[in-house]
Amino acid sequence: MDTLKELALIITRNKAKSIEVLDTQKREESKINDFYYQLTEGSFTSDEEAATYFYPGKKGGSNYRKLKAGLKSRMLNSLFFLDVKKSTYTDRQSAYYECYKDWAAINILLAKNAYISCKELAKKVLRYADKYEFTELTRDVSRVLRLHYGAQMGDVKQYKHYREVYETYDQICRWEDIAERHYTDIMIEYVNSKSSKDHLLLFVEDALLELESYIKESDSYRLNLYYFLIKLVKQSMVNDFQAVYLAGQEMANFFEAKSYTAATPLQIAYYYQLLACTQLGQYPEGKKIALKCLELQSEGSFNWFKYHELYFLLAMHSGEYQEALSIYNEVVDNSRMKFLPDNVKEIWTIFWAYLYYLGSIGELDITGTDNVFSKFRLGRFINETPIFSKDKRGMNIAILIIQVLFLIEQNKYNVAIDKLESLDKYCARYLHKEETLRSYYFLKMLLSFPKGSFHRVAVERKASSFIDKLKNIPLENANQTYKIEILPYEKLWEFAIDMLNLKGYNTRNSAAK
User: Fold this and answer.
1) What are phi and psi of 362, to 5 degrees?
2) How many H helices and E strands in the chain?
3) By the 8 A CB rule, do 278 and 310 touch?
4) Between 31-40 and 61-78, two packed helices, what is the crossing angle to 10 degrees?
5) Is the pLDDT of residue 86 over 90?
6) ∠ CA(159), CA(161), CA(164), 5° rounding?
7) Count of CB atoms within 10 A of residue 386's CB?
8) What is the dihedral of CA 213, 218, 219, 224, to 10 degrees?
9) Tell me, what's the pLDDT at 14?
10) Rounded to an integer, what distance in angstroms lies between the CA atom of residue 304 and that of residue 295?
11) How far apart are CA 112 and CA 90, in angstroms?
């Protein structure tokens, strides 16, 4: 009863007003509610479109700005009324939302000197934060209780208890922060470039050595999450995909042993195992892991899209092109696609080009997909990949290759010759390195097309030495970024060479023209 009295007094003294939230039940008609539902349906792509919708014939001006501010305010208020018990949430996710909502209330109660209510709520939050390993929250709440029992109550026993809790979790937080910083220092190199990062290897190894000393002291969720992430990155960097698979299994075993559902770490562990299966050619095992991972995905989340990138590649590498098309359609039809970072959307644009190529050469049935593939234009495709077009040792390789393949498939040999001449210089400048040797040899194979006058037998003879060199570096041993080969180069070569006939093409006469 004391807690209720204290809360009632605070609300009365501070004249708490009604909270304006969204009408998610559509019980009233208003511009704000209409704006909200139009957004959820993806009706607007810009402020200009929204302003024109609500204030036709006007520029919107201050009226639109007020409407937008009002909607934003109500949406922020509504965050505190989210259904944290949704069946799609894991137990840890529900606890996270509940604990941090209560933590906001604790801070307000502290500011109002409501110590009775604050203490009870803090103890409740501390129990859940400790159970679900919200380390920072455990530290921060124990600090509040340490202050309360020390400075307010003078309770020595309770003060010493919460002081010890605080110091323990403060140390774990420092270890977690170091682990997160190391991981971020590594991953910032990968955001807009998919090229190999051998120069990072020494830093990664040093980071792992440091973190290994910390995980001996703590089995905390975040500390071990970043440790395993860095370990997986390291194995991926040296292209030891058997080690990647095993590290993924080790990570999965660790987090499966938790008393709660650790969805995010398990998704990551399965993701890397799926990557390893794709590179090792273990397609049945990869498909099994893919389906297992799907059960943990929240549709439309960032990780959902990243997981589908790898699922798509698995299908492409296994020759399941119709399955790859289904995965692609599922992704691009998702309403959250437009909110992805540009570099992620570009990956799917590149995938789109390869699917279209497969359809063009009869390897993929694209019947009924005119709404997607009728829009494909090679020039437009190039304009829609500005980020990775600059990634000279990474995804730009996949962009250049598909351009050449299209030109060969369309018998545009004059244009192909010009394109391949520029690629010869590109190979010498960017690709004659260990981490891009498969790409180097494959482009050299493509350069054999004009040298063999686009005559199948002559081209195969000219390319033979590079074909042998490519075979000597199988995909699972290649020191390259895995996404570059959207289809294995061996398969792309088969497709390209099948486009040629035995008549050939007179490149000398073509040049004279």
Assistant:
1) 85, 15
2) 25, 0
3) yes
4) 70
5) no
6) 105
7) 10
8) -50
9) 59
10) 11
11) 34
Q: Report how far residue 237's alpha carbon sits from residue 201's, in angstroms, rounded to the nearest whole number.
A: 7
Where does residue 300 fall: left (phi above 0), alpha (psi -120 to 50 degrees), or beta otherwise? left
Picking from 79, 76, 50, the residue whose alpha carbon sits closest to that of residue 63 is 50
Per-residue pLDDT of 344-362, as tens digits, reads 899 999 999 999 999 999 9
Q: For residues 444 and 438, what is the distance between their CA atoms, to the nearest angstrom? A: 10
Q: What is the mean pLDDT of the chain?
A: 85
**pLDDT higher than 90, residue 69:** no
What is the C-alpha to C-alpha distance for residues 434 and 479, in angstroms, rounded to an integer?
7
N residues, the chain: 513
Q: Which are the contacts of 34, defined by CB distance < 8 A and separation ≥ 6?
A: 54
Segment 114-149, tens digit of pLDDT = 888 889 999 999 999 999 999 999 999 999 999 999
Alpha helices by DSSP H, listed for 79-198, are: 91-111, 115-131, 135-147, 156-187
What is the value of pTM for the model shown?
A: 0.68
Quick check: helix, strand or coil at residue 46? coil
**What angle is formed at CA 44 by the lines to CA 39 and CA 47, rounded to 5 degrees?**
105
Q: Say if CB 171 and CB 214 are below 8 A apart.
A: no
Judge whether residue 196 has pLDDT over 50: yes
407, 499 contact by CB (below 8 A)? no
Which of 356, 353, 278 minimizes the C-alpha distance to 319?
A: 278
The residue assigned the tokens 């098309």 is 325
Q: Which two tokens stand for residue 320?
A: 């399941």
Contact between 90 and 265 under an 8 Å Cβ cutoff? The reply is no
Note whether 96 and 82 are within 8 A (CB): no
3-state SS string over 238-274?
CCCHHHHHHHHHHHHHHHHCCCCCCHHHHHHHHHHHH
pLDDT score of 30? 82
Identify the band that residue 279 occupies on the pLDDT scale cut at 50, 70 and 90.
Answer: confident
Q: Which of 76-85, 101-110, 162-171, 377-386 has the lowest mean pLDDT?
A: 76-85
